[in-house]
Amino acid sequence: MKKYIFFLISLVLYSSVQGQIPSKRWTLSGSVQDENGNLLPSATITLLDPNDSTLLTFGVSNPQGNFEIKNLREENLILQISFTGFQSYMQEIKSPVGADFLNMGKITLKESTADLDEFVVEAIPPVTIKKDTIEFHAEAFKTQPNANVEDLLKRLPGVEIDADGNIKAQGETVRRVLVDGKEFFGTDPKLATKNLLAEAIDKVQILDRKSDQSQFTGIDDGNREKTINLQLKESHKKGYFGNLNGGAGTENRYSLKGNVNNFSEKQQLSFLGMSNNTNEQGFSIDDYINFNGGMQSFTQANGQVRIVIGGSGNQNSIPLNTGQRINGLMNSHGFGANLNREFNKKTKMTSSYFFNLLDHQITQNTDRLNFFPGADFNFNEFSKQDNLNANHRLNLILDHKIDSLNSFRSSNNANFIHSDRVLNSVSSNQDLNGNLLNKGERTNINVGDSYNINSEFLFRHRFAKPGRTWSANVNIGYNESDFEGSLNAVNEFFGENPSQEIINQQNYQNNSALNYGTNISYTEPLGGRKYLELVYNFRQNHNKVNREVYDVEGENLSFNQPLSNRYTSLYTYHRPGANISYNASKYNVVAGLSLQATRLNGELLLDEVSIKNRFENLLPSLRFNYSFSNTKNLSFDYVTSVTEPTIEQLQPVINNSDPLNLYIGNPELRPAFLHNWRVNYNSFDLGKFISLFANANFNYTRNAIGNSQSIDERQVRTIVPVNVKENIMAMGTINLGFPINVIKSRVNFGPNLMYNQGLNLINEVEDMIKISNFGGNLRYDYNWKEFVNVGLSGNWSRQRTAYDFNPQQNQLFFNQSYTSELNINFLKYYTFGGSFNYLIYRSETTDFNETIPLLNLYISRFVLKNRKGEIRLSGQNLLDQNVGVSQRADVNFIEQTVTNNLGKFILLSFTYKLNNNLNPMNNMGRPGGGVRMFRMGN
Q1: Which of 152, 171, 323, 365: disulfide with 164, CB 3.0–4.6 Å?
Q2: Where is this protein chiefly located (predicted)?
Q3: DSSP-based three-state secondary structure for 618
């Protein structure tokens, strides 16, 4: 496989070099200043073809106002220099005779004036720097008709998009994509990038968005969020535009999707729809978290977040795009509407509704080697799942500026979820000699509905004195769920005392929770760029759980009290604190200290047991942010936090959904205390388009909540959460991206390292588990104008798991993936492309060695006037690899899983582009370099 990747890279490099490197290359340099001799950093340097004014290359001046553009091959060029607030400089230049270097010296720009009696036609500069914002002009980065915003972003220097559409800009993950400064279907960036047309975009702005609190108070708190704002063309700010797509293929496969946008000066209205059985779903991490009840449902007591996708332990089994291949067979349906409206200058609304329906069928075979002191054994499970999930999600935000000093904001969201899950499984445990220890068959059925409603009301007041502010928010939420299910299981136990256990049970569960609270903040300027912030947070959660389990005996139901539970709790949280900040021109420091006091009063009504816990913790914090320039930043954060045990972890009730693996809560659990240190460095060279991003993260958790595992003589495992002394996690990542201009290419390289050390109890023996993972990725991209795109990438992961109780059982396995992508646009109307993925899973400890090759190809032709239509023939998984593979090592086991997947199919589809209000002025430019016209004077 390595030879295959090396061959492809060599082929692309050879063809690129042979086709594009002439015998002579030369360099252009100079410096930019104003009429007073002040140097102008970040001025845009554009080089155009004198024959048709198309864009050839561009760059920017460095902080000292100097510029240098290398590897030029053209004999004649037009040099254009642009800087905000100044008239553009244009001059035709020729390559130096008998030399390979041309220095233009100092070039002076004049300030813009509005009394010139002439028309000026000039090329649009591809990039403009505005303080902390980098602005790309979309016309300078030509895409194909019907291309979406994602295709446009891939062409921008410093922007990277992975296979799932996750975006990185200047080395940082983009958390938010706005459309004309407004949210588009909430905060999921991919709903905008995958559904909006590239031709609708005038400018792409990349900025570090300050926190809402920082924007309100004017006090920099050091929190930043990498954001992209898509500015629409004037032609698309009024009228409608969008895409409609439909396709049908072999194996009864089909795909339907579309988006329609109707925008006006004060309103944005968008509709999205999709339905397919081709394993495409486009749901984001936010969708998945919302389906499962919020981020708190994934937060473990050690402060970490763990999300498990699929598998027998995941009750919802919502498939999630994570950049990996989706396993199982899935039918996806969705519909959404987004409405943003500005009623007047003081009041605006953001709202959206989204519906998802997923039917996910999974067939899975799991082999697990378990390590216990003195008795290792093999576990095998074959399971079939059918998971149906329907979700309605509604969001409504109202912003109202009462006057220049006061504002009000109301944020509301509601979810309704219906889930229907059927799981059938056959499992067994064997010793290392192949002797059967136990085996079981079970069927789990769970059907139910849940809904939640949350509202937050925020009032802000700004005093006349700059920096003095007051804000208060009140939040209230309610959620309820009703589920009913059944468990039918037959378990056989072998050995000296063989036996059989038959379980036939029904269960009913109702959960409800009411939570409310408030957060108050007051800021006061102390002089000398110092500020004081006083904060107070209060919250109460009321929870009720009623779970009834009945044994089915013929037509009679017998109440099973040990498995049933009636529980009520009141959780109260107080957190007063203070922060002191110092804001300088290049850096800011924020130091804080708060006191968190929590009370938990719970009642187990069936057992007449009370759970009462009371905790107080001091929580220090420190944030430091240093900006070397607009594109180079260093930050350090130290944060402490407390994570209380969940209700499920505290209840001493048996969960027997898997009779061979039981779970019992522990009412003696204490909260975990987390120390987190984080360092981030981010640099982006605007002149050379070199990006460097590095971060290091270290977590130390005291009183961490781990698991105590015990196994009885029948090989039935019981898991109980317990407090352990400490857990440690450290990780580091580096990402370096740089262009190879001579061959129109870009390379990105990113190694990463993770180390996790934790204590667990196995058969009452304390065991230290050490997991280290070293990996990385390498990607090469070659682009020749809008005609050819080639991408080659590799991802590697090496994980080692070490066990103190038995070093001989230490585990080592490798996961690798290699990808090649090709897109060619030819004969004006045709496009050919495809991708080849090669996945490798190998274990040094077991005999597991699996490879999966995946090949996708397509060819398309544009039709109709203005190329509004596109006919595409695509072949998916042409090598017919209908399985998915994963492997992992954890506390005391190594596991390999093989899952069914979608096989080979051919799809014929048609796409139609909607646009009723195209502005002909937008077509004046030539490909690669837009044109704008200015009227000077009367």
Answers
A1: 323
A2: membrane
A3: strand
